[in-house]
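Deviation from plan, reported transparently: 4AD complex.
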Amino acid sequence: MGQRTKIKALLESEQTDIEVVVKGWVRTFRNNQFIALNDGSTNNNIQIVVDFENSDSALLKRITTGAAISVTGTLIASLGKGQKFEVKAKEIEILGDSDPEKYPLQPKKHSLEFLREIAHLRFRTNTFGAIFRVRNSLSFAIHQFFQEKGFVYLHTPIITASDAEGAGETFHVTNFDLANPPKTENGEIDFSQDFFARPTNLTVSGQLEGELAAMALSDIYTFGPTFRAENSNTTRHLAEFWMIEPEMAFYDLNDNMDLAEALLKYVIAYALDKNKEDIEFLSQRLEEEEKQKPQAERSEMNLLQKLEFCLNNDFERVTYTEAIEILKESTPNKKKKFQYLVEGWGTDLQSEHERYLVEKHFKKPVILTDYPKEIKAFYMRQNDDGKTVSAMDVLFPGIGEMIGGSQREERLDKLEQRMDEMGIPKEELWWYLDTRRFGACPHAGFGLGFERLVLFVTGMGNIRDVIPFPRYPKNAEF
Ligand code: 4AD
Ligand code: MG
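Because the crystal trials were delayed, the predicted structure below was used instead.
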């Protein structure tokens, strides 16, 4: 297909007056003379200068917004303002036409809501180009962070028979004819005839399997899709999201917090370095968007400053009990401004409370620890006070919960007792309990919601805009 140079490389070229081949999609075509061409390698377009007097007018007509073209020409220092280089075209080939009457992406500002409806084309906008390049860098950085530390990347199953979190928010997996499933004599669905001969679901977390591997490989991490059928129509929830779940043998809660903080700082620093232009673009986008808001609701820092701030400050580590005291005494609680008032110890924190703590009180990322056992999963290690567990949630400004994790209960008797109390079937999790029978050891881990991380680093406001094709209630288009 010929030696094509990507636009990012062309714009960084040290040489001019060289022959180049450049391919991409037309953003705009002005005065029958200037094509702004983009190939997704950067948000910057390369300007193609067309010798329109000596060009076939039928060809010029086909250079429309959205068309795919190939240009052979000379890279020259630009005479115009706004760009260093441009390509003086010798030959232009239309690879794919785009009917300007029908192409939905016009060279103007479209709303994010509209772009969500044409998610198959939104990659072609500056905003989404930048988001998905940042998303790419963040996923690479996550692997690099763990690989440098000798962690083993583990693939845990997508289809499972367990509900790791015990929250009952799973999608069923079956190959029954749903209109006519086989029934037992009692008239119940006969799962023994289903594909796996038992009820199965899409995984909500790879943690339990991750723990099994950590009990041999020491340090593992997963990075894969997880599925939750919670009916949360919010800007922070997806039905299908990607999660990173490290699990470490011989770690306690402090080690776990240190690792979580180091991971977040590492990947944010990596993206700031690798994707500076994209993040600067997204920072400006956010500033523009915030101009629509009343002064009081605008952020004190722009996106770049927020990211730098996060790198340069220690996360605040606070117990749940301390947090409840702060919240009880807070102005929005006293003035009954919270939707859910904080009455006392034991209640679960709502996202309004989490955001108050990070955005108003501490004004930085916060790690909340030692939650009441009643509001946390069965596998979390029970503290000596008999009331709390060694849990940790990492809360971020503008996001709320970014990470949830804990030290794990490694003592068989305590774990079984908690499973009984919470109605978790021990027979089904015999393999999980076996790790507590054979060489149990202190261990800990956490889950990082990847899209929430991408939200924070891109400064976007809705989780549906940081995954290519979001899955949420009543939507599985594309
Ligand atoms: O707090 P969660 O439910 O924890 C677990 O699943 C544990 N098994 C993790 C572990 O210890 N290995 O989920 C972890 C993170 C949350 O902090 C949040 O960032 C993200 O996953 N998350 C979601 N992200 C998008 N959409 C949803 N519906 C999410 N539910 C959780
Ligand atoms: Mg959680």
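The first strand starts at residue 18 and ends at 30. We consider this an acceptable substitute for the interim report.
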